[in-house]
Amino acid sequence: MFEFRFESGSGVPPYLQLVHQVERAVRLGALRAGDRLPTVKEVAERLVINPNTVLKAYRELDHRGLAKGRAGQGTFIVGERRAMTKSDQARRAELRAGLEAWLTEARRAGLDTGEIDAILSTVLHDFREETK
């Protein structure tokens, strides 16, 4: 079963954190069409957040075409990316390992989490600007 995380100091609204986690999980193939999300009650109790926050996230997922609620059954993933081949999976694992190695080196170089986050955010922003 998929489990949500909540980072209270992130500055990102809780409902958006939930939405982004589902989007990432779908992109990475961790959630697929037909997978059931935890109930609103389960998420609210586990993360100690207001159930209305979870409802708002699930409504947003519905609006984005990623999940659909079924009365009395729960909320299910309806959208997914194309199936990844073994080659795709291997390449993603290789890329992830490279990023993890970079993060380890950054930590060894004395960078704290905030500095690492700033570098990654800046590079990602610049990359997005270049590919427009």
Notes on the protein architecture:
The mean pLDDT is 90. This protein folds into two domains: 14-77, Winged helix-like DNA-binding domain superfamily/Winged helix DNA-binding domain (Arc Repressor Mutant, subunit A); 86-130. The chain has a two-stranded antiparallel ribbon. It is 58% helix and 6% strand. By secondary structure, it is mainly alpha-helical. The relative contact order is 0.11. It has helices at residues 14-27, 40-47, 51-63, 86-108, 113-130, and strands spanning 67-70, 74-77. It is built from five helices and two strands; from the N terminus they run αααββαα. It comes from Amycolatopsis rhizosphaerae. It holds the Pfam family GntR.
Which stretches of 5+ consecutive residues score pLDDT under 50? Answer: none
**CATH fold label of the largest domain:** Arc Repressor Mutant, subunit A
For the secondary structure, the number of strands is 2
Architecture (CATH level 2) name of the largest domain: Orthogonal Bundle
| Shape field | globular
N-end to C-end Cα span: 37 Å
User: Could you name the CATH class of the largest domain?
Assistant: Mainly Alpha
Number of helices: 5
In short:
The chain has 132 residues and is mainly α.
Helices and strands in order:
Layout: H1 14-27, H2 40-47, H3 51-63, E1 67-70, E2 74-77, H4 86-108, H5 113-130
Antiparallel strand pairs: 1-2
